[in-house]
Design goal:
heterodimer; A: about 100 residues; mainly beta; 3-stranded antiparallel beta sheet; B: about 120 residues; 7-stranded mixed beta sheet; 4-stranded antiparallel beta sheet; 11 strands; about 0% helix
C-alpha cells in the first residue's frame, strides 16, 4: 500500500508570501493520478490540481503543481487571505495527512 | 447546476447499520466514477470506496466486508450501505464525483453527512 507523506505539517506564513507544500510517496507513483485538495473548516474539500500539474476549473494561476515519481509539490505563489486552509495530496485510495497553512 | 447532496447520517449503536444516500443533479451518476470519502472528527481525509462506470467496486481495507457502495440510475443516486458499524466509523461522510485512479480527480463534492457510532 502506498503511503503519502506531506510536509511540513503546518506552514506559518503571511499574506503575499510563497507557500511550498510537499507530498512524498513511499514508492514511485503515476503522476497522472496525483491530485491536491484544499479544505477550509466546516467545508467539503475542493479540487485544486489533478494529474499533478493541471489546475481544476476556476482555480487561480497562483496555484501550481509539479513533480513525478515519489516527490510532488504544490506551490502557492502569493498567499491570499482565502488560501489559509488545509491541503491534502491524494492518489488512488490514499490521502496524505494534510498540511495546514496558517497565518503568521 | 452540478451538485451532490448527501443524506442518511445519524447516530447508531455499535454493530448497527445505516444507509447513506448521495443525490446528484446536473450530471449522471452512472456515467461517472463515484467515491465516498470520510473524515473523523479533527482528522484528515480517508478514502472509503469507489464505484466505476462499469459497476466495479473497491473498498478501503478498514471497511471491506462491512460497507457496500451502489447506485440507482433511475434515481441518479449513489449509496453507501454501512453494516457492523464501529466507533471508529464515526466521521463526516462525503460523496464525490471521480476519484480512485482517475485523471481528473474528484471535482464535485457533497456537503457531507455525519455518522456517529456510540453506545
Amino acid at each position: 500500500e502506498i503511503v503519502l507523506t506531506q510536509s511540513p505539517g503546518t506552514l506559518s506564513l503571511s499574506p503575499g508570501e510563497r507557500a511550498t507544500l510537499s507530498c512524498g510517496a513511499s514508492q514511485s507513483i503515476d503522476s497522472s493520478y496525483l491530485a491536491w485538495y484544499q479544505q477550509k473548516p466546516g467545508q467539503a474539500p475542493r479540487l485544486l490540481m489533478y494529474g499533478a500539474s493541471n489546475r481544476a476549473t476556476g482555480i487561480p494561476d497562483r496555484f501550481s503543481g509539479s513533480g513525478s515519481g515519489t516527490d510532488f509539490t504544490l506551490t502557492i505563489s502569493r498567499l491570499e487571505p482565502e488560501d489559509f486552509a488545509v491541503y491534502y495530496c491524494h492518489q488512488g485510495g490514499t490521502f496524505g495527512q494534510g498540511t495546514k497553512v496558517e497565518i503568521k | 447546476e452540478v451538485q451532490l447532496v448527501e443524506s442518511g447520517g445519524g447516530s447508531v449503536q455499535p454493530g448497527g447499520s445505516l444507509r447513506l444516500s448521495c443525490a446528484a443533479s446536473g450530471f449522471t451518476v452512472s456515467s461517472n466514477y463515484m467515491t465516498w470519502v470520510r473524515q473523523a472528527p479533527g482528522k484528515g481525509l480517508e478514502w472509503v470506496s469507489v464505484i466505476y462506470t462499469g459497476g466495479s467496486t473497491y473498498y478501503a481495507d478498514s471497511v471491506k466486508g462491512r460497507f457496500t457502495i451502489s447506485r440507482d440510475s433511475s434515481k441518479n443516486t449513489l449509496y453507501l450501505q454501512m453494516n457492523s458499524l464501529r466507533a471508529e466509523d464515526t466521521a463526516v461522510y462525503y460523496c464525490a464525483r471521480g476519484g480512485y485512479y482517475y485523471f481528473y480527480g474528484m471535482d464535485v463534492w457533497g456537503q457531507g453527512t455525519t455518522v456517529t457510532v456510540s453506545s
